[in-house]
Design goal:
Layout: H1 12-15, H2 19-47, H3 54-75, H4 90-103, H5 107-121, H6 126-148, H7 152-158, H8 160-178, H9 186-206
Helix pairs in contact: 2-3, 2-5, 2-6, 3-5, 5-6, 6-8, 8-9
């Protein structure tokens, strides 16, 4: 029998050329695209049904601009700027000014504030607001992942207690808001006790042991 010659271990890059580069590009572009989609979903979720009001239209327009500008900032985050900016052409100066407009303002925070205010303008809808809160938290977390390059699993593990306690408090608030208002009595006192217990449990989860 002919002895088998030892073979070198096949790495991932040698098996499929370019796979490693594709994985890196997907890891970079994935959170950025996800942030854009989550921001657009939050805008669409809050904008319906349409409220015919000047302030509502203004808030909606500002929120759309903020989400789009934040997405552009993430997409152009890797574009370098020249160190020597004294002898630059007019188009290049305009491009640098455009990058500064995108990178300086906190677009995501502006979008969150505008969307929350737009939700306040609508009539009371507790579970709709609860879903919006979850969407905005997911939006901000995705933006943080896109900016820092942190692995989603590591970020979720490190913030698990805060996210769970926040979700429970939002659910309790939404459920309480759906209850019909009534005169002070045993029912309202029980709700206050439940809310106080929930706050204590949330604080126990968040505070370090």
């Amino acid at each position: 029998m002919t002895p088998r010659l030892p073979t070198e271990p096949r790495t991932r890059a040698s098996v499929v050329p370019g796979t490693l580069h594709a994985d890196v590009a997907l890891a970079v572009a994935g959170p950025r695209i996800s942030a854009l989609l989550l921001g657009a979903a939050c805008v669409a979720w809050t904008a319906t049904p349409t409220v015919r009001s000047g302030w509502a239209s203004f808030t909606l327009v500002i929120s759309i601009i903020a989400v789009v500008a934040g997405a552009l900032r993430l997409m152009l985050a890797d574009v370098p700027e020249p160190e020597d900016q004294y002898f630059l052409s007019v188009p290049l100066r305009a491009w640098l000014w455009f990058l500064a407009v995108l990178r300086v303002p906190p677009w995501e925070e502006v979008a969150v504030v505008m969307l929350v205010w737009l939700e306040v303008i609508h009539p009371a809808r507790p579970w709709h607001t609860f879903a919006l809160g979850a969407g905005l938290v997911a939006y901000l977390l995705t933006v943080h992942i896109a900016e820092s390059g942190t692995k989603p699993s590591r970020l979720l593990r490190s913030h698990a207690k805060i996210l769970i306690s926040g979700a429970c408090l939002m659910a309790i608030a939404a459920g309480t808001a759906m209850l019909p208002a009534g005169a002070p009595g045993a029912g309202s006192a029980l709700l206050r006790v439940i809310a106080a217990i929930a706050i204590v449990l949330a604080a126990a989860l968040v505070l370090p042991s």
